[in-house]
Design a protein that fits this description.
Layout lengths: L2 H6 L7 E3 L9 H7 L9 E3 L6 H4 L1 H12 L1
Parallel strand pairs: 1-2
Length: about 70
C-alpha cells in the first residue's frame, strides 16, 4: 500500500503481525503510525508464527477475525 493510501484509508482494519517473521519484521510500525483505519483497533502480535500466519497459527487468526468482524 502506498503511503497516501494508508493515510487516507479510514475504514477499520486489523493488523496482525508475527513475532518471528524475518520478512515483515518492523513492518507493523508503518501501519501503526500512518493508517487511520487501524487507530481504533488493537494491534496484535502472534507469537511463534512466521510469515504465513494462517498456516502457523490458524486458530488464533480465526479467533482474531471473528472478534474483529463482531
Amino acid at each position: 500500500m502506498g503511503r497516501k493510501v494508508l493515510e487516507s484509508f479510514e475504514k477499520p482494519f486489523l493488523t496482525a503481525f508475527s513475532d518471528s517473521d524475518p520478512v515483515t519484521r518492523g513492518g507493523a510500525r508503518v501501519f501503526l503510525e500512518r493508517a487511520r483505519g487501524r487507530r481504533e483497533q488493537k494491534h496484535v502480535t502472534i507469537e511463534g508464527a512466521r510469515y504465513f500466519l494462517q498456516e502457523d497459527k490458524p486458530d488464533e487468526i480465526v479467533a482474531l477475525l471473528d472478534q474483529f468482524i463482531r
